[in-house]
Amino acid sequence: MKTVITTKTKGLFLSLGLGLISFTGFSQEHITLSLENITAKSNTIEYDLFIVNDGSTALKLAACAYGINYNGVILNGSTPSESAYSYVEGSSSKELKGMSAYNLLNTNRDGVNQLRLTMKPARKVDGANLVANVPYKVGHFKFTNNGAWASNSNAGFNFNEFNVPGISTSCALAYVNSADNYVGFSVAKKNLSVRVANSPVLNPTMATEVTATLNGAVRMQTMEAQSQEIGRQGVSQQIASKISMYPNPTQDIVNVDLYAASVVNTVVKVTDIRGRIVKQIQARSEKGFNTMTISLLEVPSGIYTVQVFQDNLLSFTDQVTKKD
């Protein structure tokens, strides 16, 4: 598989993927893309991208495209180049090696940080047969920062699912059964799904417990050890700063419950797909259980990212769906 680094988005936005997923068994044509096996070092993140035909019809892949959004906080002030995103040669499944070259790009457009993979659609004779319920590895990919990742940060990888101007959309093209023309697969058409594995905490400086949520987001629960002398005996207590968010989806308010091991300054930020802050509240959290409530009543429907900072450290990240 030849890789091309380009500053222009060609063909179709590529969103590769499926790894360790459970197949739903869709009754008609359906494709699932996923991002799996994420690993990280001081200034690099690597992962695998997979694709699977999990419907009931025969498919021949013409192209797949994706835009993977990530949290720009991880860059720690660095500005990695457009070519900082790379494909490990020879890492894709042999069935996909006849596909068109990958065009890779790390971008920041309108405040949205994104890793893009696009490709030109293949002719039917050159397309890749996708055997039902068999995951095909699109490849192993690496993103390199020109400085260390921000401590205790999280990439918060998520596939861009819908059409947004200037931002790549995760989708695919495939020939269905014996048809001579390919058709499009996307979340909007309800014939494509996406999944993202848990992202690890980058350059951790404290013990963390990472809990996956259903939509692939990550909750980081900081573990803080406290020691207390009782009489002549020393008793060590570990108190977990546990955070939860509800209801989700919501039409108005979102509650954030947290347990603070000590008095902390807490900030809750809600950002849209472009990373713009649409709501923010700040409060002093007392030792023990606390609840912070934020209203999304005037916010347009969509998917938003909720982040909780305690004394300027990111301690929780999740996504909430706002419905009208």
Description:
With 324 residues, the protein is an all-beta fold. Helices cover 0% and strands 53% of the residues. It has two domains: 3-196, Sandwich (Immunoglobulin-like); 206-322, Immunoglobulin-like (Sandwich), CATH 2.60.40.1930. The strands form six sheets. Strands 1, 2, 5, 7, 8, 9, 12, 13 and 14 form a nine-stranded mixed sheet that branches. Strand 20 (243-246) and strand 21 (253-260) form a beta hairpin. Mean pLDDT is 80; it is low at 4-25 and 206-241.
Could you give the count of β-strands? Answer: 26
Radius of gyration: 21 Å
Q: Main sheet?
A: 9 strands, mixed
Whole-number total of structural domains: 2
Q: What fraction of the residues are assigned to beta strands by DSSP?
A: over 45%
The helix content is under 10%
Task: Show unreliable segments.
Answer: 4-25, 206-241
CATH architecture of the largest domain: Sandwich
Order of helices and strands: EEEEEEEEEEEEEEEEEEEEEEEEEE
Mean pLDDT, nearest integer? 80
Q: Which of globular, elongated, flat, extended, rod-shaped describes the shape?
A: globular
CATH topology (fold) name of the largest domain: Immunoglobulin-like
Q: Which structural class is indicated by helix and strand composition?
A: mainly beta
Write the layout of secondary structure elements.
Blueprint: E1 3-5, E2 12-14, E3 31-40, E4 44-53, E5 59-70, E6 85-87, E7 102-109, E8 112-119, E9 128-130, E10 136-144, E11 153-154, E12 158-159, E13 171-176, E14 183-186, E15 192-196, E16 201-202, E17 208-212, E18 218-230, E19 233-240, E20 243-246, E21 253-260, E22 264-271, E23 277-285, E24 288-295, E25 302-310, E26 313-322
Parallel strand pairs: 1-7, 3-15
Antiparallel strand pairs: 2-8, 3-4, 4-10, 5-8, 5-9, 5-12, 5-13, 6-10, 7-8, 11-16, 13-14, 17-18, 18-19, 20-21, 21-24, 22-23, 22-25, 25-26
